[in-house]
Amino acid sequence: MAKPEKATLDYLYFHPITKIHEFKSLRFNHSELKEKLDTQKLNLYLSLYQSKALNKRTKLFLTCHNNTES
Fold it and tell me: Which of 22, 37, 53, 54 could cross-link to 33 by cystine, CB 3.0-4.6 Å?
C-alpha cells in the first residue's frame, strides 16, 4: 500500500492541476492529511521525480493544504 506522501505525489503527477481554486474544489480530507502527511518525506520523494512541473504543483498543493482549516 502506498504511503500518503507517495499517493499524494502520484495524484499530483497524473492530475496536472495548476490553479489554487482547482485544489480547493477537490475533496481532500485536510484534517487527515495534516495528521498523516510528512512533508519532509514528501519532499524526499518529490526530489526523486526530478520534475519542475510536479515541484510547482506540489508547492501549490501545500500552500492550499496549509491554508485550509482542519
Answer: 37
Domain boundaries, given as residue ranges, for the chain:
15-66
Cell numbers given for 68 = 485550509
CA–CA gap between residue 60 and residue 12 (Å, rounded)? 10
Place of cell 512533508: 39
**What is the rounded CA–CA span in Å between residue 51 and residue 13?**
9
Closest CA to 9 of 31, 34, 41: 41
pLDDT reading at 68 higher than 60? yes
**Alpha-carbon gap, residue 15 to 69, rounded angstroms:** 23
- The total number of residues written for the chain in this structure: 70
**For residue 41, how many other CB atoms are within 10 A of its CB?**
13
